[in-house]
Amino acid sequence: MLNKSTCLSYPIAAIMSSGKKNFENIGRYSGQSGDTIRRLLRPADENSVHLEKICKNTFQGKKKLNLIIDDTLLNKNHSEWMQGTDKFFDSKTDTKITAYKLLVCMISDGQYHVPIASSYLYSKELTDTVREAFESKEDIIKRFVKQAKNLFPDVRFMILVDGLFSTKQFVGWCFENKLDVETRMHSNRVILFNDKKTTLKALLNNKWLCPKNNRTGRTFSGIWHNLPLQFTIERRIDRHGQDILSSWFPLTKPLLEIISKITKIDGLLKRSLERQNKHLG
């Protein structure tokens, strides 16, 4: 396989090898030197073309797809002069680590997940210094959405993003373009509920709204920055194994069965990224 397909040589070697994903260690799998493996690594633009072809073949004929966008850290704790690394907060260790921060976009039908694009995210200290030199996270997501739409112009996408991206600018843009999006929202957000201003945290503590017995979620209507939204209070297990309540909203009102399915997909993506990060050198 390594001799027949040049574009797949490096990905196959990286997948089949174990341990850290550096050139020397990957070369041990195929009995090649680190320099030979380095030459097999194709440019990012070329890889993007192949990923788009794989995506089209995988999801051909689909009418609805999920567009999953999330950020991840590539730990480079021992680096000092690597261009692009910076100090970022790691939620797994509750500390700041030196790392690359990537925003990853993939298309999924619930069974298969194909990445189509990624982009670097830089620290706020750097982007605030020279704003015009960097894309904002909202602009990056918009670019990802347009790329997916160009790949599948007749497909209806459900955009799934983390609470980090539930901003007024992004949600307003989704409204203007009639896009379906689901995202978590921080509990300190103020919304208009039953003609009264309140926080999501206060609603989470409202015994009349909280899911009871075997129910896993409850959906209600509210207004946030003059945008009419459907909010869902969901019961889930956090990373410490404790039963907690979280709030999130879809721009289209879903059934609870669909919410449960999408939550499982999001959890699968996060666990997959975490397993990959542990072996990246």
In a few lines, what is going on in this structure?
The protein has two domains: 1-42, no CATH class; 43-278, Transposase Inhibitor Protein From Tn5, Chain A, domain 1. Helix content is 35%, strand content 31%.
Describe the structure.
With 281 residues, this protein is of the alpha+beta class. The protein has two domains: 1-42, no CATH class; 43-278, Transposase Inhibitor Protein From Tn5, Chain A, domain 1. Helix content is 35%, strand content 31%. The protein has nine helices and eleven strands. It has helices spanning 6-16, 23-30, 34-40, 44-58, 124-129, 137-151, 168-176, 200-204, 256-278; strands at residues 64-75, 86-90, 95-108, 113-121, 156-161, 180-184, 190-193, 196-199, 217-224, 227-237, 243-250. Strands 1, 2, 3, 4, 5, 6, 9, 10 and 11 form a nine-stranded mixed sheet that branches. Strands 7-8 form a two-stranded antiparallel ribbon.
